Automatic annotation (TrEMBL):
Transmembrane segments: none annotated. Pfam families: DUF499 (PF04465), HEPN_Swt1 (PF18731). It comes from Granulimonas faecalis. Residues 1010-1050 are annotated as: Disordered. Residues 13-134 form the Swt1-like HEPN domain. This is Swt1-like HEPN domain-containing protein.
Length: 1126
């Protein structure tokens, strides 16, 4: 057709094609009714008004009279002779079509300057075709339908041959533009530049009932063109493997082949049963038209080959739709004058007899219909064979049976008679030459509907089960093909499509760890191309998740939602390379309502507030922070999570989507993956209805608040002091001593809280005393100095035993925030009964406490990372105190981290070389003296920060013992009595005790030498001088001291100690006795030590029975003897 033709031209062309078959049919019918001689006068001339017949002849030959009629006159003749001539021949709606065409003809004849719209022209041409089909002139009807397709789709072959659709001119408000803003991917074409949606989708003309195939409407000629027009129907239908098998089986059967005589279509709700029946209907009714259309012939070529048939024979079709029939009423078919139909068998036979032009066949069942009794399989077989090839379509059979169940006296008969008829019908089809019965059987409880439906289904299945071929039309993997064919025109630029799919495939392959493992496989790239322009993840979520919802039909539900999505994206000029879950325009009320209509009403508020509404949390996140806004990361993540959240969440074992699935649904080539991961984390922290599983890997929305809002509200009621108390308590539980750093003082409130002991102690400063960006100063420095110099009002003695750990000041607010969150969760747990928390929310509270505690512990490890080690110089006398600020690695804990750093920096000495001690003695400690006590030496190491920090006293004792073997380090004496060294040795190994003294090596050597010389000078009879009793400074003059000049050592063989222990601190005192007294005795050669514990307890009121019983049982268990006295 030339492009210059207007819609008026197409309508005039249609009326030209209509005229000849219409005039022929009208005149032939009038001649049959009024007679050969009188038909023109009675049926034409006398029926028209004078102005309507002014151009008509009063007589002439039959062909002259036929040729004198124009379209308007022919149409009016049907209307004015309806009762007498046409009511019995045509369907009731044909009179409506006639009157509609009369008005249209008048409008075209008196046209103005403005052309008719495409919709007006297409509707008029469709009505002409329907009228021609009503008197069985399908070839001429198809010629007019080709005009209709050109007007509606731009091609005689329908929408499948159309190339593109113009975008609508839409003006959006500023708010609408903000919500609808989309971002193109780098260097990739938009999907709208590669493929166009169907025209009705881009215009948004689909209605709520759209995509619901109705066999009754098609049979009556009142369906939408995409269902009514066989060429357009197959153009938008993806012929699945199941449908191909059904069509080939049916075609083989009606052509006299080996096809199944009875086929049962059984699928879930929305599985495509009725659509499959429509395919059968159009194939059998319009096989010639379909075969003459190149695209449909190519599409159905495999069907004809499988059937071994190359042309569809003449087939008479009877359609029965259970929901369209009323079993309580009779009907009077216009095409069968004098016939009253009561039953289902009467309806089927009436349709077959009328289609075959053999009304007398109805007599075979007339009596059975009148008496509401099934006619028997033989009568039904005879009807089928006398008609020829027949197709009986039984849709919604269970729905019809439910109307009969339990009700007596219906025109249609009883439920039992209905079941009997179904059995007889299947037997008749099996016995017939080339007839076929196809029935749809529901599988879902929604369609079965209650006890009556279940009983009807069981009876029908039992009957059909004897000789049926069950077929399930639509598989899951074919679903997206059906949707794509129905909603989109063929891809115009396959190279561009392939480029987009390759880019997505490369994205998934190069970032394999961020996406599901299947996404990087080559097969997934093929899926991308097959589903284009819709991403496979959209179909996976809809078919795997949403179809589990009651009411969401596998095909129709997906079609309706995706039609709304595509319309809105087309409307706003979406530039994305593919339509991903993150692209879904849930901000649009119509689109949102189309998907939430299957959910409880409470979901609408969730979508508005936390998914994609104006002022929603994701939108605000995108607007507040440019790093998210440049990718619309917040909204895309939220939309993706929502699409994976909606199924019956309470019944799911595994909830929501994992992080990799979420990224798969929202990231396109060129996006920054970490931004979307961060956006997910941010939304989890701020959304009230977004949930996360205990492992932190799966996310979903729910209509029940996740308690985060309650947590946030309670956090706002927690003050900093309360948060600090919780933080301090957590630190005290978390920071335990680790040998040799066994003493840890966490967050002391004053210097008096820090003991002044001869033990290395780590003091962990509170959160207000931290290290800032400029270093350790201010309050933190003042606090550490105060603790180091003082213990309350008294000066601190053991200053070198303290090291400090401080937090980073910048983490102070975060630490308090985390502590407040933990307090809030614990408060909710305490108020669980008051808040009426269900079991799921109680689990959420437990997880919240556990997670908040773990977060706080982690934050503490990260924050307390500054080890502060005090030091000074000898020159300053300790007054020039400084703190070395070094960072620790607290991955294993703050205390282990501090200990590791002290060790690596040698700020804590656990083993000391004698040489180093000798150097310190020579440099600082001898200080002009000849000896220094070990105890005094240890006290110096505890006090002075310019000395090394020894882990404990044993480090010093071990070092001294190891240095005893050398004569250049020091001598050791057991003590000094009356100015003399007791048991002085030099260069000899010995045990060292805190009561010992170290002697300068030169002094010790001289004293020992003098003593040896005195021993040589002593004559016989002189009392021997015990070694080690020489004076500390030697003698003056050459003579050694005489026998009474110095003390002699008396060897004693026994030691006894009697002391009273404190009942509370007795264990600590006993430990000291063992270390300081028992050990030296035990280590002496030949010593046998016995310890005896004497315990006495008195109670003036007397010990009660429980106390006596407990003490006796414990004594018996430990093997001790003890007794109570009066």
């Amino acid at each position: 057709m030339p492009d210059s033709m207007s819609n008026h031209d197409y309508l005039n062309k249609g009326f030209d094609l209509l005229l000849d078959p219409l005039a022929d049919y009208v005149c032939i019918r009038l001649k049959d009714v009024y007679g050969v001689s009188d038909w023109w006068r009675t049926g034409v001339y006398d029926r028209l008004f004078e102005n309507q017949r002014m151009n008509l002849p009063r007589e002439g030959t039959f062909m002259d009279l036929v040729n004198s009629l124009d379209v308007t006159a022919s149409l009016r003749l049907i209307d004015v002779n309806w009762r007498e001539a046409f009511k019995a021949q045509l369907v009731k709606s044909a009179r409506t079509w006639v009157n509609e065409l009369i008005e249209l003809r008048n409008a075209v004849t008196h046209r103005g300057r403005q052309d008719m719209t495409n919709d007006q022209a297409a509707r008029g041409l469709e009505t002409m075709a329907l009228l021609l089909e009503s008197f069985d002139d399908r070839e001429e009807a198809e010629k007019i339908r080709k005009l209709m397709r050109v007007v509606r789709y731009g091609s005689e072959d329908g929408s499948v041959a159309a190339r593109s659709v113009e975008a609508a001119d839409v003006h959006l408000t500023k708010k609408q533009r903000a919500l609808a803003e989309t971002l193109p991917a780098e260097a990739l074409p938009s999907w709208r530049d590669v493929v166009s949606p169907q025209a009705d989708v881009t215009r948004g003309v689909y209605r709520k009932a759209e995509f619901a195939a109705d066999l009754a409407q098609v049979a009556a000629g009142t369906a939408q063109s995409e269902y009514q027009d066989p060429v357009e129907f197959f153009g938008r239908t993806y012929v699945t493997a199941g449908m191909q098998g059904l069509l080939s089986q049916a075609l083989s059967r009606v052509a006299g082949g080996s096809g199944e005589p009875v086929i049962q279509l059984k699928t879930a709700f929305g599985g495509g049963k009725t659509h499959s029946m429509l395919a059968l209907y159009h194939l059998m009714k319009s096989g010639t038209v379909l075969g003459d259309t190149p695209r449909t012939r190519e599409q159905l070529e495999s069907v004809f080959e499988a059937a071994g048939v190359f042309r569809v024979p003449k087939v008479h079709v009877a359609c029965v739709v259970g929901t369209a029939l009323n079993p309580a009423k009779s009907s009077r078919p216009q095409t069968m004058p004098g016939v009253t139909v009561n039953t289902l068998w009467g309806e089927i036979v009436c349709q077959l007899a009328s289609s075959a032009g053999k009304p007398e066949l109805y007599n075979l069942v007339r009596e059975a219909d009148k008496k509401h009794v099934s006619p028997g399989s033989e009568a039904l077989r005879q009807v089928m064979d006398d008609c020829g090839s027949c197709l009986v379509l039984l849709d919604e059979l269970v729905a019809y049976a439910k109307k009969l169940y339990g009700v007596d006296g219906l025109k249609a008969g009883s439920f039992d008679n209905f079941i009997t008829f179904v059995q007889e019908l299947t037997e008749a089809a099996r016995a017939s030459r080339s007839s076929l019965v196809v029935a749809s059987i529901p599988e879902s409880e929604r369609e079965i509907g209650g006890e009556a439906g279940q009983l009807a289904l069981e009876a029908i299945e039992h009957t059909f089960g004897r000789m049926e071929s069950i077929w399930k039309p639509v598989t899951k993997d074919e679903g997206f093909e059906i949707v794509s064919r129905r909603l989109f025109l063929p891809v115009e630029d396959t190279d561009a499509r392939d480029r987009v799919c390759e880019a997505f495939g490369a994205l998934y392959h190069d970032n394999a760890g961020e996406f599901p493992v299947e996404a990087k496989e080559a097969d997934y790239e093929r899926r991308l191309a097959a589903c284009y322009p819709v991403h496979p993840e959209v179909y996976d979520r809809l078919y795997e998740d949403w179809t589990t919802l009651p009411g969401f039909q596998r095909t129709r539900g997906v079609l309706r939602f995706m039609a709304s999505v595509i319309y809105q994206l087309w409307l706003v000029g979406d530039r994305s390379p593919m339509i991903l879950p993150g692209s879904l325009p849930l901000y649009d009320a119509v689109t949102r309502d189309e998907i939430t209509r299957y959910l409880p009403d409470s979901w609408n508020a969730v979508v508005d507030a936390e998914v994609d509404g104006e002022g929603s949390e994701p939108l605000l996140l995108d607007q507040r922070e440019a790093r998210y806004g440049q990718f619309q990361a917040g909204r895309r993540v939220a939309r993706t999570v929502f699409l994976g959240s909606a199924p019956d969440v309470a019944a799911q074992n595994v909830r929501g989507l994992d992080r990799k699935q979420i990224l798969l649904g929202c990231i396109q080539p060129g996006d920054n993956v970490p931004v979307f991961v961060d956006a997910l984390v941010r939304l989890k922290g701020s959304s009230q209805y977004l949930y996360e599983d205990t492992q932190g890997v799966r996310y979903w929305f729910d209509t029940r608040p996740s308690l985060l809002k309650t947590v946030a509200d309670r956090m706002g009621q927690v003050g900093d002091p309360e948060a600090d108390d919780a933080l301090r308590a957590q630190m005290q539980r978390q920071m335990k001593g680790v040998d040799p750093l066994g003493c840890v003082q966490v967050w002391p409130l004053r210097s008096a809280d820090v003991p002044d002991e001869e033990q290395v102690r780590l003091v962990v400063l509170g959160v207000d005393h931290g290290v800032g960006a400029t270093g350790f100063d201010g309050d933190a420095a003042s606090c550490a100095r105060d603790y180091l110099y003082n213990r309350g009002e008294a000066p601190r003695t053991n200053r070198n035993m303290l090291v400090f750990c401080a937090c980073e000041s910048r983490r102070r607010s975060d630490l308090r925030e985390r502590a407040k969150r933990l307090i809030a969760w614990r408060g909710i747990e305490a108020d669980s009964e008051l808040l009426n928390l269900d079991r799921s929310q109680q689990r959420e509270v437990a997880e919240g406490i556990k997670g908040s505690q773990a977060d706080l512990q982690s934050a503490i490890r990260e924050a307390w990372c500054h080890l502060l080690v005090p030091s000074s110089t000898v020159e300053g006398g300790g007054s020039d105190l400084e703190f070395d600020d070094v960072r620790i690695n607290a991955v294993d804990g703050v205390v282990p981290g501090c200990l590791a750093r002290l060790r690596s920096d040698e700020s804590l000495v656990e083993r000391w070389a004698p040489m180093l001690l000798s150097m310190e003695l020579g440099r600082l400690l001898w200080d002009g003296r000849d000896e220094v006590g070990v105890s005094e030496l240890w006290n110096m190491f505890c006090r002075y920060t310019y000395l090394p920090r020894l882990a404990d006293r044993d480090v010093l004792l071990r070092c001294i013992e190891e240095g005893c073997a050398a004569d250049s380090f020091w001598g050791v004496a057991s003590g000094v009595e009356d100015g003399e060294y007791v048991n002085l040795t030099l260069g000899e190994r010995r045990s060292v005790y805190t009561t010992d003294v170290l002697v300068r090596p030169d002094v010790a050597s001289r004293v020992i030498a003098e003593r040896e010389a005195e021993k040589v000078d002593d004559g016989p009879g002189d009392m021997p001088v015990e070694p080690g009793t020489v004076g500390p400074h030697g003698g003056e003059g050459g003579d050694a001291p005489s026998q009474g000049d110095g003390p002699t050592e008396t060897l004693l063989s026994g030691f006894y100690l009697d002391m009273e222990l404190d009942p509370v601190n007795g264990v600590m005192e006993l430990d000291t006795v063992l270390a300081e007294i028992v050990d030296p005795l035990r280590l002496a050669d030949g010593t046998r030590v016995r310890l005896h514990l004497s315990l006495s307890a008195e109670n003036g009121a007397g010990f009660d029975g429980d106390t006596q019983r407990t003490v006796r049982e414990n004594c018996n268990t430990l093997g001790y003897s003890g007794q109570f006295e009066e």
